[in-house]
Amino acid sequence: MAGKDLTADNRGFSLVEILVTIAILGILVTIGATSFRELNEKYRIEAATKQFYADLMEGRGRAMQRNRVHYVQMTSNGYTIYDDTNKPVIFGKLSSTITFPSSGSPGGVMNFQFNRNGIASTAGYVRVQSSVPRVFPDYNCITIAETRIKMGQYNGAACVEK
């Protein structure tokens, strides 16, 4: 029996190969987790903005349908819509921050009303802000004019309606 070559039958992985593979997988998981976090935040901001918009439109519709003035009170983390009997009809609590860059309202509170015809008593925009940097959702602000409410994207200076 001639000598058998033991190195040819060695089918395992070396420690260096395993460590390199684990390092590459760790880098890929880190990149994926960061991207997932940013994507999740983007969709969270968009969902909050769309819900806020829907509630404002419902409040406006209620004012016209019931022929009653409806008041909107927004704070930095939520909003409430009241009818003219001071009864809350719509609540909204956001995990994001609402800012009112165009209103100049003190204390982080913005109030306005929809009259019986659904016309808003103010004009401006509100922005739903993200706490995560480098997140650019498609919708993150709402413009409010006397006769219309529209969603848009904040461009750093104003809300651009879409």
SS-based class? alpha+beta
Global outline: elongated
Query: Proportion of β residues?
Result: 25-35%
How many independent structural domains? 1
Give the second-level CATH assignment, the architecture: 3-Layer(bab) Sandwich
Sheet having the most strands: 5 strands, antiparallel
- Number of extended strands: 9
Protein architecture, described:
- By secondary structure, this protein is an alpha+beta fold.
- It has a single domain, classed as minor pseudopilin epsh domain (minor pseudopilin epsh fold, 3-Layer(bab) Sandwich), CATH 3.55.40.
- 32% of the residues lie in helices and 28% in strands.
- It is built from 1 helix and 9 strands, in the order αβββββββββ.
- Strands 4-6-7-8-9 form a 5-stranded antiparallel sheet, covered by helices on one side.
- It is elongated and about 85 Å long.
- The N and C termini lie far apart (83 Å).
Q: Can you give me a brief rundown of this structure?
A:
The protein is an alpha+beta fold and 162 residues long. It has one helix and nine strands. The strands form two sheets. A five-stranded antiparallel β-sheet has the order 4-6-7-8-9, covered by helices on one side. A four-stranded antiparallel β-sheet has the order 3-2-1-5, with helices on one face.
Keyword list:
single chain; 162 residues; alpha+beta; minor pseudopilin epsh fold; five-stranded antiparallel sheet; four-stranded antiparallel sheet; 1 helix; 9 strands; elongated
